[in-house]
Amino acid sequence: MTGVIHIPEGERGHIRVFNLDMRPEQVRFLREPGALAQILGIDDIDLDHVEIFPLRDLEELGLSGYLTEGCGIPAGDVEACAVALSTLDGHIMLLRSRAFRGEDTRLTPAEQIRLAATFEEPDAKWSAQKVTAESALPSRPNRLSPRAARRKSSRLGGTITIVVLALIFLGLYRLVT
Asked: 121 in helix, strand or coil?
């Protein structure tokens, strides 16, 4: 057992790498609803932010390459843990902070789950100038409120009905005379 792993409330941008010392059928079971949460000692987890796979699936890329190229972890951070990552075998689990939905969480993983490393995803660094062109501003046509639109529609429908009835009566009057 790796002890208690504390995930603070509101944590963002961390990826924890776990080595799974389990048989393949046990690993497949972790994808069942509630199974992973149970083995981590918590009530719930968002499986959309969990990756479980055998290391052999990474082929030439390797775990270090996957973390840098696939997850965007800086190469220097991965190199600092290269020795620990090279000892991993079998199945791996990548657990992102978002899996805990921003809640304060305490993991108490089963003996077969061993934390190998924790990485921080780099923040997106971007900037943009304020758009000032009039064509970029949202257009707001003069729209009627739903009530006003219904009232206008009713008046138009009433007017059309009166005109049609007048034409019918005019036609009937000419037939009679």
From this structure: coil
- The pTM for the full model equals 0.66
CA distance 12 to 79: 22
Q: What is the DSSP annotation of 24-79? A: HHHHHHTTSTTHHHHHHT-S---GGGEEEEEGGGGTTTHHHHIIIIIT---HHHHH
Q: What is the pLDDT along the chain (177 residues), one digit of tens a residue?
A: 458 999 999 888 899 999 999 999 999 998 888 899 999 999 999 999 999 999 999 888 889 999 999 888 999 999 998 888 888 989 999 999 999 998 999 999 999 999 999 999 887 666 677 777 877 777 666 777 788 888 888 899 999 999 999 999 999 988 887
Tokens of 59: 């082929």
CA 59 from chain centre, in angstroms, equals: 27
Three-state SS at 108: coil
Q: Name the burial class of residue 140, with classes exposed (0-12), middle (13-18) and buried (19+) by CB atoms within 10 angstroms of its CB.
A: exposed
